[in-house]
Structure formats: C-alpha cells, structure tokens
Amino acid sequence: MTEQNGVCGFIDDGYTRDGYIAATPYCPAIEFTYRPVLDESRIVLIDHINTADSKSKALAGQKMLASHLKSWDLKDSAGEVVEINEANMRRVEPNTLLKLRNIVMGLDVSDDRPGDDATADERREALEQAMRGEIPTQQETDAKNSVKG
Fold first, then answer.
1. Which backbone phi and psi does 143 adopt, to 5 degrees?
2. Structural domain tally of the chain?
3. Which of 41, 65, 94, 139 is deepest in the core (most CB within 10 A)?
4. In-domain check, residue 48
5. Are the C-beta atoms of 69 and 63 separated by less than 8 Å?
6. In which domain, by residue range, is 107 found?
7. In this predicted model, what pLDDT tens digit does every residue of 81-93 receive, in sequence order?
8. For residue 140, what are the CA distances in angstroms to 24, 132, 136, 143, 145?
C-alpha cells in the first residue's frame, strides 16, 4: 500500500509528500511537493557535510534539493514561479533554504499550514519518537485524536 502526499512508513519509489514553510519577514509562505531523502542518502550527505569544505557542502545541499523537490510555488520578483534547479537553489533566501533542506532530509517537519488539523509540534514529536524507535500504537493514536466531550 502506498499513499501519495500522505503518511506512510514505507517509502516506495515515486512516493511524495507535501510540505509547507510559513511566511517570514524575508520570504512568503511556500508550498512544495518533495521526495523524502532515504536513510542511506541522508547519512552520506550528512557525512559529506561534516567533512567537506564550505562550498562543497553548499553545492551538495543544493543538488539534493534540486533532485528531490518536485514542485513549489516560490516566485521571483516578477511573480513567476522559480524553476527548480541547482542554480536557483543558490538564490533561495538562506533561512528558507535551511528549513527546506531539513524538511526534505527528514530532520524537521513542515510548519503549520493554515487549516491543518495536526500542529507542527505534534508532527515534530512524532518525528522524534520515530527517530528513537518509539512508534505509537493505533490505540494511542486513536486516543490522542479522539474528541473529549
């Protein structure tokens, strides 16, 4: 079973997720679709980032984003959607680029999208639990999501 843009613990080839970065004083909100970086690639990239020179680190992150982002609504000063490629990754606002990279690499979760049920804090806690190997049971998930009344 696969789910596109949903929650799935097994990442099939072609699986994508939707992401969101809230607006900041430096960048409007961005909606995007991406292919999550798998564990082996993430470890290789983190190892490279820890050992390479600064320019090589930056280029590796930009290349990874250009290959894993499938779509986004980031616009240039003329209001046109920016093409996803390595050269344009170099021109994304630095704090936004860092957040984008961390989401795609599975090191952070998307921000709260207006109208979402789950909050970023809840998604971040679920990510931290998964990184510790603590997967909540369906009963715990159901209890947490039930309406008390």
1. -65, -40
2. 1
3. 65
4. yes
5. no
6. 17-131
7. 999 999 999 999 9
8. 35, 17, 6, 5, 9
